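Reposting from the mailing list since nobody answered there.

I have sequence plus structure tokens for a pair of proteins and want to know whether others read the tokens the same way I do. The first protein:
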Amino acid sequence: MHAVTGRRASRVVVVLAVAVAGVCAAGAAVAHASAGAAAATPRCRLHQLSLAQPRMNGAAGSIRLRFVFTNTGGSTCALFGFPGMQMLNKSHQAIPTHVHRGTSNVVPPEPELNVVMTPGQHGSFYAGYSDVPSGTGQCRTSAFVEVTPPNDFKHFTQKLAIQACGGRITVSPVVHGRLPV
């Protein structure tokens, strides 16, 4: 093995520094391109989506619903964040509804991610509520429910009877695929 000394050592250090900088720059460019591609995906609009009738699971006064959006459009789109919900009576008038974004005893923690869906792919979320009255709180039953995709102002209206006491509903963020019921 030969020892590297003097000017030759300086050249080796410079060459290595340039090589390391090039590798780092290439890695950063790939990461930036991937992030840019995800950020460049347009958000899903209501006309690009369908919403399946939810599946329900519950016991001991705690009810969990799983809602599934499907990209029925002709192009890739993305959903990010939490959906909105509004309970309605049989005349389609609003019943007081308080949507909490997060977790509860029936809504497990889910990551808030950019859900990119190609045509035919799914994104889903949980909604949970209690149907056990506490104190003098009312447990009104809806006839319909409005579901608004994240970052949208238009909504789906589904025929759905839920009895959320106090109008309190907890929702998870939308995640890729179909969550288990």
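The second protein, same order (residues first, tokens after):
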Amino acid sequence: MANEINQHDAEGRKTGWWEEHFTDGKVSSEGGYTAGKKVGHWKIYFRNGIVRAEGDYRDDVMTGEWIWHRQSGQLMQTGSFDNGEQHGVWTRYQANGELYDVGPYDHGVKTGEWKSYRPDGTLKSTKSHLRA
């Protein structure tokens, strides 16, 4: 059936759409599997139902743009992955919604100019990271 979830293939691997649950039965995450590996768009939830994080997987590895939220639903950070490594510009936000810091990663290593901000959103510091 097309609407069935939490199925296994002939080799016992997860396949198709899956919902994973907290012990109280609420959905903790949802997304697709192929041959036992996470693929496509996934959402991960807080117990209160707010989306904690969402982004894509390819062969069980995070890829592309991901977004994280606080339990209140407020944006916490955004960033991208390339083959499971942080890559590209990452931006984190303070609990009050102001920027916390922003800067680039190059395959898991901070590089280039990173800016940090005070709680009022004004620039606190700038630091250059050189790739070794």
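Reply #1 (J.P.):
I read it the same way you do. The radius of gyration is 18 Å.
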